Predict the 3D structure of the following.
Amino acid sequence: MRAALLELDPATSPPRDDLIAAATMYAGLLRPHEVAEWLSLRWARYAYRSATACFGPVDERTFAAAAVLSTVMAAYRLEDAAVELREQIAARLTDRFGPAHPRVHTARVEIAVARHAAGHCVQAIDELAEICLSWARRHGGSDVVTVTTRLQLAALHDACGRHSGAARRAALAMRSYHPPQADSPAADRPDLTWITDPDHTHAVLCQHEYPRRLLRRLRDAARNPLNRRHLP
Ligand SMILES: [Zn+2]
């Protein structure tokens, strides 16, 4: 597949079912800059553009291509464009399924996480807190999605260096959570893979003072080894 796609140009390739599926998978597997000329981004754009033209804006194949394109754009540090695309997709999911649907909730959480990664962490955390609250009002504090969303909120606080706020929210989430019995259906268990990994580069973009201060101290220490003993 990879060899076949390398023979083609995403800018001139026709919108074809098999090519859209291959491009969606290929763009999702490639690491950014693995091959020259922004190839993963160009194939991801091809897949989304062609899927929209062939299947329409609310087809599952278009949603899949959009998710890959958004992830690839973020990997190329085009985070604001990635957030914008996720907002368009969330609006279409809302039109199709209604604002209370779990897929809309997940899409909104993903927007907040993407916005946080783009460095708009104050807005992202406010949004995620509101998303979490509105889900908890409908489904209760011990609902698995409420628990998972609260843990995601704790993860964002933690990435911003607000460790006590993160610990408080994580403790609240775990206190509300009642572990299922061994024979409970898998749907009753929180899907913790949903929570994003800690973003170790977030300190560069963070709007809060603590990570920036820590980053400055790390830089100073790198320049002057005598300062290293003052690091936390
Ligand atoms: Zn931050």
Notes: The pocket of zinc ion is lined by residues 121, 160, 202, 206-208 (CB under 6 Å). The chain has a mean pLDDT of 84. DSSP finds eleven helices and no strands in the chain. The CA atoms of residues 4 and 22 lie 10 Å apart.
